[in-house]
């Protein structure tokens, strides 16, 4: 599907029409952030930025988009404006692949208010989904430790979402994918095994294995659970592996796809080792996720490669990341959205986010949000609890938001998915394990500079008086 500027919600365009009449030259700042970590975890992995920059560089309405909008009561002068529409704004963002936390800007858009409003939907659509899936992938990587992870999810993904799910999975730490189009476009490793239908298409499992091994001897992985894993699949795979040895070839692996994966993997390892096939790897699949993989590791299942589909690409059980895009400044003036739920009150003005690092370069566990116009803060305060604050002078502070697009043009050459994945790995390594554990992870502190808090509280006063 080609993404043009009609990839938006109608209300963005109806608001834009009113801005066009009332404040065509307004300059807005919007913040992208989410309010709670996915999967009740301790962090998220930010993904989707490069796709957004590429889309926004060419975000225009096609002639058929304009024809379509004629049926929605848009006046001719506004439709003429849309014909020439281009995103010419500035974007500051965290690096793609970084670990990010709730209630602090991850990305800021500064643009003409019409442009900033129209890009909201596509931006949320891509960043929310990929951030969710990259986070899930990083959790699966955490549980799998140094084992190989293969994405098998395309068939179970929400339609074309599987394309971006694969990209996010690689950023979060997967090694390879079965998804040919995504692997081709994102230049990542593509691999796979075989389906039950292939074995079923033969009268005899052994013949099925033999043909496959003869025709595709390289990286050949035989699926051994169609009839009986231990009595038929493995003995047949061992026969074929020995025949391959005679031809100077090596069977790469066997795949277990049902039953008790720990029990079967242990039995399979013994059978393979007894046949002098120590090099044959064991692949496991079947509704895996970070918790099942953790359990398999605890059971010391000798599995070398995990194939993960549904739970990865659908971001189960969360389904969605609730990232939002909120107006924080208009024409240099602060803007706020109040809420009964104090945590939902927005932060005014253009901002910078600083990460605290300890002497060893590890993340201390605190990000401070300050006004963009301020120097690095020396203290951060809790957003709502007056009794809590943290002195920041002892930390090395890293500013996280950097300008990545100016006047609609990206400022850096596009990073490859492999580079982003590498960066993500290095950032996750800087995050202490207590933030990565699955149960009751340590809470990462996000605080405000005293000046930002003062400005926010002044605005709250103004609007509640
Ligand atoms: N040793 C194990 N420890 C923990 N979980 C496991 C173990 N072995 C398998 N599982 C998981 O248990 C679940 C079993 O699901 P299910 O009952 O659908 O599988 P199955 O009946 O073996 O397979 P199928 O229905 O495909 O024939 C899967 O999520 C699987 O990954
Ligand atoms: O369980 P997931 O994590 O979603 O992983 C993908 C699943 O998709 C395939 O099954 P499917 O029944 O679709 O096809 P098959 O006949 O090749 O097993 C594969 O065998 C895995 O079991
Ligand atoms: O290559 C595989 O084994 C594979 C690919 C997609 C889905 N299930 C399995």
TrEMBL record:
<dbReference type="GO" id="GO:0004516">
    <property type="term" value="F:nicotinate phosphoribosyltransferase activity"/>
</dbReference>
<keyword id="KW-0808">Transferase</keyword>
<comment type="function">
    <text>Catalyzes the first step in the biosynthesis of NAD from nicotinic acid, the ATP-dependent synthesis of beta-nicotinate D-ribonucleotide from nicotinate and 5-phospho-D-ribose 1-phosphate.</text>
</comment>
<feature type="domain" description="Nicotinate phosphoribosyltransferase N-terminal">
    <location>
        <begin position="8"/>
        <end position="128"/>
    </location>
</feature>
<feature type="domain" description="Nicotinate phosphoribosyltransferase C-terminal">
    <location>
        <begin position="350"/>
        <end position="453"/>
    </location>
</feature>
<dbReference type="InterPro" id="IPR036068">
    <property type="entry name" value="Nicotinate_pribotase-like_C"/>
</dbReference>
<dbReference type="Pfam" id="PF17767">
    <property type="entry name" value="NAPRTase_N"/>
</dbReference>
<keyword id="KW-0436">Ligase</keyword>
<keyword id="KW-0662">Pyridine nucleotide biosynthesis</keyword>
<dbReference type="GO" id="GO:0047280">
    <property type="term" value="F:nicotinamide phosphoribosyltransferase activity"/>
</dbReference>
<keyword id="KW-0597">Phosphoprotein</keyword>
<comment type="pathway">
    <text>Cofactor biosynthesis; NAD(+) biosynthesis; nicotinate D-ribonucleotide from nicotinate: step 1/1.</text>
</comment>
<dbReference type="GO" id="GO:0005829">
    <property type="term" value="C:cytosol"/>
</dbReference>
<dbReference type="InterPro" id="IPR040727">
    <property type="entry name" value="NAPRTase_N"/>
</dbReference>
<protein>
    <recommendedName>
        <fullName>Nicotinate phosphoribosyltransferase</fullName>
        <ecNumber>6.3.4.21</ecNumber>
    </recommendedName>
</protein>
<dbReference type="InterPro" id="IPR013785">
    <property type="entry name" value="Aldolase_TIM"/>
</dbReference>
<dbReference type="InterPro" id="IPR007229">
    <property type="entry name" value="Nic_PRibTrfase-Fam"/>
</dbReference>
<dbReference type="InterPro" id="IPR006405">
    <property type="entry name" value="Nic_PRibTrfase_pncB"/>
</dbReference>
<dbReference type="InterPro" id="IPR041619">
    <property type="entry name" value="NAPRTase_C"/>
</dbReference>
<keyword id="KW-0328">Glycosyltransferase</keyword>
<dbReference type="GO" id="GO:0034355">
    <property type="term" value="P:NAD+ biosynthetic process via the salvage pathway"/>
</dbReference>
<comment type="similarity">
    <text>Belongs to the NAPRTase family.</text>
</comment>
<dbReference type="Pfam" id="PF17956">
    <property type="entry name" value="NAPRTase_C"/>
</dbReference>
